[in-house]
């Protein structure tokens, strides 16, 4: 538990607590599984990991959970600053089998927010559509790099990509559909209607993955029948994904990668914080954001642990070689370790459902 300081906030109103809890709910988690239970114990905020909801083939070694812990913490920081509070965070990551992963106390602050991102918290979304080919404004990119530097994270921007990097990302778009276990884990969280999303308060809609209603019906069919999924893959699905991903990757304003010199848990958490700051800042100015998690986090996991669960050999080989692609394309130093990646550019908002309750499962 945090040693409380003399300056800690003695009292937080119920309204302020609800605002902070609501902000935590806006943070992205893997497949929007909402794998965090965030609650107040008087004026202390506890962030507890729901291991069952976070159980996913793409969350080996809890790396995706560590990233999303960073997004939750940064979302809380943004909301707290708007309320006149600063935060002190203590992480409890030595044993990730325990539920409690972080504790936050709040202090009164006279420092005004340099950039009001509070409203952007509730407009943040994943957008896999085509973007305009316009780079990130240099002033905003400099601000994001400065924020990242304070957390020992490096942001690198690029467009266009090198040929090898482009085709690597192209291949990664196939991974979720090609790997049956990944497909089943990921599509479990699709909410096929707004009614489902209102009732369950988790998951993601078809718009977030650029699917139409009739394509959602095909996803349901492929979940029930592996044979149908394999048949569709051979005759049409792989070609559709190939064309769609080609157009999406071409119609991008910028690609950002987030790297660190070390690969400790705190570096992954700070990458999540930095990514979330970039995500909300970009959404605020009308830029769409799509995380490219497979292409970035899986190679990081492979380098860190030496293996990937149930990974086909051709993908395993590409994930191994991706280190060279990143280094050459983004001019990285030898000890830069890529952890997360996104694509961005001016885009029309999806206007997806936004949550308004402090709890996703109340």
List the helices and strands and how they pair.
Blueprint (H helix, E strand, L loop, with lengths): L13 H13 L9 E6 L2 E6 L13 H20 L2 E7 L8 E9 L9 H4 L16 H13 L2 E6 L4 H16 L1 H8 L6 H7 L12 H12 L1 H25 L3 E7 L4 H20 L2 E5 L1 H13 L7 H18 L6 E10 L16
Antiparallel strand pairs: 1-2, 2-4, 3-4, 5-6, 6-8, 7-8
Structural class: alpha+beta
Helix amount, in percent?
Answer: 40-55%
The shape is globular
Tell me the β content: 15-25%
**Total number of β-strand segments?**
8
Please list the strands of the largest sheet in the order they lie side by side: 1-2-4-3
Q: If you compute it from the alpha carbons, what radius of gyration comes out, rounded to the nearest whole angstrom?
A: 20 Å
Secondary structure tally, helices? 12
Residue runs with pLDDT of under 50 for 5 or more positions: 352-362
Listing every helix as H and every strand as E from the N terminus to the C terminus, the arrangement reads: HEEHEEHHEHHHHHEHEHHE
Largest sheet: number of strands, sense, barrel closure:
4 strands, antiparallel
Mean pLDDT: 90
N-end to C-end Cα span:
27 Å
What's this, in brief?
The protein is built from 12 helices and 8 strands. The protein has helices at 14-26, 63-82, 118-121, 138-150, 163-178, 180-187, 194-200, 213-224, 226-250, 265-284, 293-305, 313-330, and strands at 36-41, 44-49, 85-91, 100-108, 153-158, 254-260, 287-291, 337-346. The strands form 2 sheets. It has a 4-stranded antiparallel sheet, covered by helices on one side. A 4-stranded antiparallel sheet has the order 5-6-8-7, sandwiched between helices.
